[in-house]
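Annual report, structural modelling task.

Input specification for the S-adenosylmethionine complex:
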Amino acid sequence: MNYRHAFHAGNFADVLKHAVLVLCLEHLKKKPAPFRVVDTHAGTGSYRLDTRETEATGEWREGIARLWDATDGGTRRDGPFAALAPYLAEIARANGATRDLRTYPGSPALTAGLLRAGDMLVANELHPDDNERLTATFAKDKRVKVMAMDGFTAVKSLLPPHEKRGLILIDPPFEQSGEFQRMTEALGNGLVRFRGGTFVMWYPIKDVKPVQRFQRAIGDVAGKAGVETVLAIDLFVRAPRHPDLLNGCGLLVVNPPHTLVGDLAKAGPALAALLEQGPGATFEMHKLNLPRPAG
Ligand code: SAM
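The model returned the following structure:
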């Protein structure tokens, strides 16, 4: 386990993932019934942007810093990023009144910021150091439970949630091969237990072919389980000509909120233009073709 998210916090991939995560959570909050979020690979929870790790890569400067500047420190509520206002509001909250960008909230901090009194977050992180920091961050928040199991095992053992409503974020580090396969199996296990849940799965895009195979495999598993909609959301920061580079990233959202496509219709292409790192930056969104369940 060499991957440490502190080196990548606030990069373009976090911006896409977290903007979508917040939109999904905002939708869950439209109904009063409580919900549960399971974050299978949670990281440390929140990140300072002036540390040795963040400075070593400077990735956040090509990610959240660009969005922060483009929205005047999250204060601009009009224009192409209007739909991302709830995400920007959470970043503003993490940074206090001055709106200087010093802290970037990871998925657990963003989620915890949006929970209501009866909602729950289970934040699971296997790395002992990161788990210790995560535990310390949420020590006083009774709505947050921190666990330290394998993230894919968590999908099996923590579902279905007691609340019967919820979201599962599956965001592994992709430091070893076989991650696409493990995510596909995890989704199958998750849907057997919680077919109505919203599953948000992040993946890197280097070469597009393995990603297309992964999307087909996920569509197959979801369709056979009786799911009606899986949305693929891909952000390319440059055309994928060099498969050694991280050319983009994507999310598969199983059982997405019906509002998500509309929310991203303007913001998605605007993000691609803002976060571009080379020619050919684009935003693509499509519903997967799903087979019908057998019998
Ligand atoms: N979800 C976080 C966010 O958006 O702020 C970032 C998570 S980072 C991409 C992946 C995390 O998974 C790392 O913190 C890593 O230590 C952790 N990890 C690696 N292998 C794991 C495993 N088998 N089970 C659970 N966590 C694992």
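Residues 1, 3, 5, 17, 39, 41-43, 106-107, 124-127, 130, 150-151, 171-173 surround S-adenosylmethionine (CB under 6 Å).
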